[in-house]
Design a protein that fits this description.
The structure holds two protein chains of two kinds.
Chain A: H1 2-38, H2 56-61, H3 64-98, H4 104-115, H5 123-132, H6 139-163, H7 168-175, H8 180-191, H9 193-209, H10 212-217, H11 226-238, H12 242-266, H13 271-277
Helix pairs in contact in A: 1-12, 3-6, 3-9, 3-11, 4-6, 6-9, 7-8, 9-12, 11-12
Chain B: H1 4-9, H2 20-29, H3 40-69, H4 88-95, H5 97-131, H6 134-149, H7 152-163, H8 168-175, H9 183-186, H10 188-213, H11 217-225, H12 230-241, H13 243-258, H14 262-267, H15 279-288, H16 293-321
Helix pairs in contact in B: 4-16, 5-10, 5-13, 6-10, 7-10, 10-13, 11-12, 13-16, 15-16
The chains are: A mainly alpha, B mainly alpha.
Chain lengths: 279, 322
């Protein structure tokens, strides 16, 4: 009996491996295309062995007009947006996690409700509003909107992580005369380092990849982040220069992939985020 | 009201809102170490205020503004005054065949890519990963998650290339001697749905992997010894045990899918014609090509309402879980 069970398990493992490999191969095809095409002097739309390896595609796009300015704009938008999100959410999470108040529950429920609102839906009114208050086509307006749209989820995550830091350590600091702010900065935040890292990386990745918000709120080409300018590039030249489009895609995607790997490593596998999202 | 006696105890309880007043005065009656510095408002509301300000100005105000201009005839340019038109925008929408087309396509897109695609494939991957060997599991996880982490626009390019007439999919079909076709032209909604499955399955996979890991091994092993086959174990044991995760995952996937814009924009721009024009793309076209902001906002408000309903269901599900 035990023997058949273990042999059945082995065959089942083989079947599972085979199934996963089929799915993995299918999912890998588009990824292979972008990597191979970026190195291919004669890239087309198919996955194929490159006609020789070249860095020409990268040379063609790595200049300030095509990539550097948009990437810098992305960095400014997402960097300040993330900074604002992390600072505001850490501050907001502290009283929600530490003090009991009858306002906490309704506030948290509102936050939870806001996390899942479709932001896409409000972009037209936001555009109209930004035109009225002269925030349209400004970096700061876009940064504020980025931060606000990311805040509900950031506060929710931050509060959950903060609940995991035991109160006793802070109480010791309070008796030593530390203020709430001091204990937040000196004790709580350092102890929840991985949590802060998750919120930071998650906010940054979401903003870096966001297309619709800057597409709507920014107008001047000089201010466009990479998400929008790569789409313009695709419309103007990418239809023919597939190798360059692929190279641009690789350059633009690398930072977020690196950031994800960094956080996933530190948290022991990418499964932590799934768990955190589950609430 | 029950707040009255406590209010008398606190000098600062100038009753403006019924909620916070009793709390503010509470420390005076029950002095606690954490509030030696006294001012409750300062410690409680001050840290919240930056976040509250941002949320109010950039989220609550736009939503309120959305609810207002949906009932006006505001246009993009060349208009001195916009005026209140009641439900006219909504009446126009429900008579407009393009709007109804967008609703239908949004429904198809959501059911195909979120309910069927991401959810089922995510669960299948998570289940297989429980049994597979470690290298295969790691490799598959890495590939599927990469597709998820990639920026939306890049995902759009990759799947545009995949589904184009000269693209990879047709090359494979030719190689298998199967009929190829111009996917983005004949079945654009199917192509963008697959694109969304490619991009979004990782999330379901992560949620379900976490849920499956929480099922005690003894239960599935006991069923296995009793001779229950794979499908029966799945149906009678696994699915009932992870039903809450299924609920939350479905809600989040659906909300995510309802607001997909960039992916479809890059792949098809809603075309050809309006054969892949879901509600967000329809809304964009009405606002900026037809410059009818008021009308587009009415569509946005409908989308927001549908989103809110899903959001409330999601919260209900979470509350039973916490």
């Amino acid at each position: 009996m035990a023997l058949t069970l273990s042999s059945r398990r082995r065959s089942r493992r083989l079947a599972a491996d085979a199934g996963l490999l089929v799915v993995a191969a299918t999912f890998a095809l588009p990824l292979l295309w972008v990597i191979l095409s970026s190195l291919d002097p004669h890239a087309n739309l198919k996955v194929k062995t490159p006609d020789g390896l070249t860095l020409d595609n990268f040379h063609a796009i790595l200049n300030s007009d095509i990539t550097f300015t948009p990437l810098l704009n992305s960095l400014i938008l997402c960097g300040f947006g993330t900074l604002l999100t992390v600072v505001c959410s850490a501050l907001a999470a502290y009283p929600l996690s530490r003090f009991r108040s009858r306002l906490n529950r309704p506030f948290l429920l509102t936050i939870l409700f806001a996390t899942s609102l479709p932001i896409t839906a409000i972009m037209v009114p936001v555009y109209a509003l930004f035109v009225q208050v002269n925030l349209i086509d400004t970096m700061q307006g876009t940064i504020f909107f980025f931060a606000a749209s990311q805040l509900p989820f950031a506060i929710w995550l931050m509060k959950n992580f903060m609940d995991g830091v035991p109160k006793e350590l802070e109480e010791a600091a309070w008796t030593d005369g530390a203020s709430s702010f001091q204990s937040l900065v000196r004790i709580v935040l350092p102890l929840m380092g991985p949590g802060v890292a998750v919120v930071t990386v998650f906010s940054f990745v979401m903003m870096w990849g966001n297309f619709f918000v800057p597409f709507m709120l920014l107008l001047t080409p000089d201010q466009m982040p990479a998400s929008v300018s790569i789409n313009e590039f695709f419309g103007n030249r990418g239809m023919v220069a597939y190798g360059q489009l692929a190279a641009f895609s690789v350059v633009y995607s690398t930072p977020v992939i690196l950031l994800y790997v960094l956080v996933a490593r530190r948290l022991g596998g990418g499964f932590a985020l799934g768990g955190a999202v589950k609430g | 009201m029950t707040t009255a006696p406590r209010q008398a105890a606190g000098p600062d309880a100038t009753k403006s809102a019924p909620g916070p007043a009793p709390r503010r005065s509470a420390p005076q009656r029950h002095p606690r170490t954490r509030n030696r510095h006294g001012n409750r408002i300062l410690t409680h509301l001050l840290p919240l205020s930056p976040a509250l300000t941002l949320l109010l100005l950039f989220l609550a105000v736009p939503i309120g503004y959305c609810a207002y201009i949906a009932f006006t005839d505001l246009q993009l340019t060349g208009q001195a005054h916009s005026s209140f038109v009641g439900f006219a925008n909504f009446r126009t929408a429900f008579k407009d065949s393009e709007f109804l087309n967008a609703v239908w396509l949004t429904l198809v897109f959501t059911v195909l890519s979120s309910l069927i695609g991401q959810n089922t494939l995510g669960l299948a991957l998570a289940t297989l990963m429980q049994r597979a060997s470690k290298p295969v599991r790691t490799l598959t996880g890495a590939i599927v998650i990469t597709a998820w982490v990639l920026p939306e626009v890049v995902a759009g390019f990759l799947l545009y290339a995949f589904f184009r007439r000269e693209g990879t999919l047709n090359a494979i079909l030719d190689w298998l001697h199967l009929p190829s076709q111009n996917w983005l032209f004949t079945l654009p909604i199917l192509a963008v749905s697959f694109a969304n499955v490619w991009r979004g399955t990782a999330f379901s996979m992560l949620v379900y992997s976490a849920a499956l890991n929480e099922i005690p091994k003894e239960i599935t092993e006991a069923a296995e010894v009793d001779g229950a086959g794979g499908w029966r174990r799945m149906w009678h044991i696994t699915l009932p045990m992870i039903r809450r995760s299924i609920g939350t995952n479905l809600m989040l996937n659906t909300l995510q899918t309802l607001s997909v814009f960039g992916l479809i924009w890059v792949m098809t721009r809603g075309g050809p014609g309006n054969k892949s024009q879901t509600l967000p793309l329809y809304m964009y076209e009405q606002a900026f090509q037809n410059s009818m902001i008021g009308y587009a906002t009415a569509v946005a408000l409908l989308l927001l309402l549908v989103g809110s309903v899903f959001s409330v269901i999601y919260m209900r599900l979470l509350r039973t879980e916490v």
